[in-house]
Design a protein that fits this description.
Radius of gyration: 14 Å
Shape: globular
Number of strands: 8
Largest sheet: 4 strands, mixed
CATH superfamily: 2,3-Dihydroxybiphenyl 1,2-Dioxygenase, domain 1
Helix content: 10-25%
Distance between the termini: 27 Å
Number of domains: 1
Strand content: 35-45%
CATH architecture: Roll
CATH class: Alpha Beta
Strand order of the largest sheet: 1-4-3-2
Length: about 120
């Protein structure tokens, strides 16, 4: 359903390195890039995730209540990707675990403070 998602950054080079390493773990790579934007996807026609410098040229800020959930195959993959995000300098917002009995989620913030999570259904 979602075609693409963007998060703001004030340091495109730093954000690019963070997401190159993080999304590389999922087999995703850069599919679009210019001076204002870098987008990643796992293949042609797949949903994209992008970092972007705001068009209004004001500083990028974190949206209160905004969070992006990125699908993972299973809890082990959630654990692996969450750990990679933290290793790359992301900050913990809730270690991987079962939530609401039906979800397995690990929450983190990227280097710009944007809140994301890796998510799968809990099979237990």
């Amino acid at each position: 359903m979602i075609a693409y998602t963007t998060v703001g950054t004030n340091d495109m080079e730093r954000a690019g390195k963070f997401y190159d390493a993080l999304f590389g773990e999922m087999g995703a790579g850069r599919v679009m890039e210019n001076e204002r934007l870098i987008a990643w996807a796992t293949g042609p026609g797949e949903s994209m995730f992008a970092t972007i410098k705001p068009l209004d040229e004001k500083p990028a800020t974190v949206g209160n209540g905004v969070m992006i959930s990125i699908g993972a195959e299973n809890p082990a993959t959630v654990d692996k990707l969450y750990a990679k995000a933290i290793e790359l300098g992301g900050t913990d917002e809730g270690a991987p675990g079962v939530r609401a009995e039906m979800f397995y989620i690990g929450y983190f913030r990227d280097l710009d403070g944007n809140k994301l999570n890796f998510f799968c259904m809990n099979d237990a």
